From TrEMBL:
<keyword id="KW-0808">Transferase</keyword>
<dbReference type="InterPro" id="IPR000182">
    <property type="entry name" value="GNAT_dom"/>
</dbReference>
<dbReference type="Pfam" id="PF00583">
    <property type="entry name" value="Acetyltransf_1"/>
</dbReference>
<keyword id="KW-0012">Acyltransferase</keyword>
<protein>
    <submittedName>
        <fullName>GNAT family N-acetyltransferase</fullName>
        <ecNumber>2.3.1.-</ecNumber>
    </submittedName>
</protein>
<dbReference type="GO" id="GO:0016746">
    <property type="term" value="F:acyltransferase activity"/>
</dbReference>
<feature type="domain" description="N-acetyltransferase">
    <location>
        <begin position="19"/>
        <end position="174"/>
    </location>
</feature>
<dbReference type="InterPro" id="IPR050832">
    <property type="entry name" value="Bact_Acetyltransf"/>
</dbReference>
<dbReference type="InterPro" id="IPR016181">
    <property type="entry name" value="Acyl_CoA_acyltransferase"/>
</dbReference>
Amino acid sequence: MNPEPPDPDERRFRKRGECEIRAARPSDAEAIALIANLPGYRAGTLRLPFQSVEETRQWLDKPASEQLSLVAVLNGQVVGNAGMRRHSGRQIHAGHLGMGVHDDFTGRGIGSALLAALIDTADNWLAIKRLELTVYVDNEPAIRLYEKFGFETEGRLKAFAFRNGEYVDAFTMARVRM
């Protein structure tokens, strides 16, 4: 007797310590919007203040092609999210990622769990050779996290974004599998 094939959502499930990593669902929209509107989370992203639940629900309902969206859940609460988008054409071997953790849950390994799940998917399921990201130069915890996972700084983007009334630089970082 052949066992039933696993549910696709269950195959994407990862549990790292107490933190559950799973595919984001449209029902996560309210929790993700709440996190995106927190000052610490938003300061590390390109998001504008006051992201609506409806705006969040739209990108969860209709994800872009070649996009993976994950959430971190701790004790039933969404405490972080991450995404990866594969490039196309002559850059099909590369992907761009972004992530963030709820202001009250930083420093607990949630970012590590999210990043590990993205890298596992890129390496073992999508054959992505190059993962890219941008990070503000003053976001030292994120930079240390990315370096821990093998990302290297490739350049500095001057006046990359306007944040809190001033222009801020960002590093472009990448992890290239040999």
